[in-house]
User: What shape does this take?
Amino acid sequence: MARANAAYYARHDPFADFTTAPEISQVFGEIIGLWAAVTWELLARPRPVLLAEAGPGRGTLMADALRAIGQTAPSFRAALSVHFIETSPRLAAAQAASVPEANWHDSLETLPNEPTLLIANEFLDALPIRQFVRRAGEWTERYVQNDRFTELPCGREARISPSPCGRGPGGGGGRAETRPPPAREELFELRESAQTFAGSLGARLAAQPGAALFLDYGPTESTSGDSLQAIRDGRPTDPLAEPGTADLTAHVDFAAFAAAARAAGAAAHGPIPQGIFLTRLGLFQRTDQLARNQHPAEALALIDAANRLAEPNRMGRLFKALALCHPACPTPPGFES
Ligand code: SAH
Assistant: This one.
């Protein structure tokens, strides 16, 4: 599973296959930039401060955020340095064109040890997951082998710990054989990369002033079952066909992610629906302001873009906003109950 998405991002322009919020409306990045500026004030204006983004795509969100910060929060603009966490050289090149001042990192671990405001849109859903399947009491794990997905028995190829092979749901390993086989296949997903990221970020936010904002899609509570999806040319496709040719995503388990960050010492706020978050922070006021200076067709397109981000039956409900903070930080903007 891990190799499939690394191969996809290295070889493809993902934005030919799907559109993300910052590519839909400039107001998305502007609002997130202002969220970072206000949160920096709440943290008592630490300086210097890192404005970091994980999985920045084309750099559009950061470019919009920096423009808005420059216009409305000059002291934050003067105090910050921009850092991108990105593994795709292809996308890093696009990011350099949008945000030449950025500094690049392969992971969170190499960010300088300074107060940090981190933002991430559709980053967690792109991290690899592991899928385990149980049929007739036997667990297998899904792998990419010779450019195809395949299932290998637990314990042979699989270097698995912890996993259902050893002690996951329903037992597993030797113990599973003593139970009656399930009527149909069972599926279990492990999100080790996201959980590790939450733990490292939580420890960083506990140790010094800072906050992080994640926008991504997934349910509020943890659920079980298969959440793997693939998009090619803007349309859903079979996630287990032709690995590396379609963008693979999995629902984010926000409850487990927040719990791992809390266990490392950070405070968590949300998740709340993206539509509520963006509306509270002025999505429609800012869109109206932009629309006023446009020809009618462009004004309508701007308003439709805002509706697409916020309406519950479009991106407003399934997408969620989650904030992680230093424990002494007051509730960040948008998360007041
Ligand atoms: N945030 C952007 C792009 C989302 S696509 C937007 O909203 O438009 C996912 C992004 O995460 C891509 O930039 C991809 O290259 C990056 N990515 C995927 N796996 C990663 C990893 N393990 N570490 C860092 N970046 C990763």
